[in-house]
Specification:
The chain is mainly alpha-helical. It has ten helices and no strands.
């Protein structure tokens, strides 16, 4: 088996657990999917005849199984759907970290990893845990760490 030198995106979902996954699915905004032209793509990726909150909720167990199979393309599309649904939180976190962005999006050529100073995950969690659902905030912290720092470990906040 080929093993990547860093954590895979599906491992973030799996590491946070199925209850967190269910919360993340419930937070997907159908309107945002349409705005960012992801609606048809997600409808096809989720294998649903009609894409709405109910069909996503009913597909939860099947979607969880796909993540367990390490379907990284699916994990990527699903994370994109979750994240575009919460750009307000993303913008707030990026602003807090001092990462230049335009409404939650930063330039692909930006060396954003240099803004992630030691302990940034815990600081972000402490600042925003009361404002946003824990599952969503932890997913984004881990996603950002995965994307920029190529982390090998799942972040869990200190008690």
């Amino acid at each position: 088996m080929l093993r990547w030198p860093f954590m895979q995106l599906s491992e973030i979902f799996l590491g946070l657990g199925q209850p967190s996954f269910a919360q993340l699915l419930r937070g997907i905004s159908i309107g945002k999917l349409k705005t960012y032209q992801l609606f048809d793509r997600m409808k096809a990726r989720l294998h649903v005849a009609k894409l709405n909150s109910e069909s996503i909720r009913k597909a939860e167990a099947r979607l969880w199984s796909r993540l367990g199979e390490k379907d990284e393309d699916f994990a990527t599309d699903l994370s994109q759907a979750i994240l575009v649904s919460h750009l307000d939180m993303i913008k707030a976190v990026l602003d807090e970290l001092g990462i230049p962005n335009e409404d939650g999006f930063f330039a692909k050529d930006l060396e954003a990893a240099k803004y992630l100073v030691a302990g940034w995950q815990q600081k972000v969690y402490e600042k925003f845990h009361a404002a946003y659902p824990a599952a969503l905030l932890l997913f984004y912290i881990n996603h950002l760490d995965w994307e920029l720092a190529k982390t090998e470990h799942l972040f869990q906040p200190a008690a």
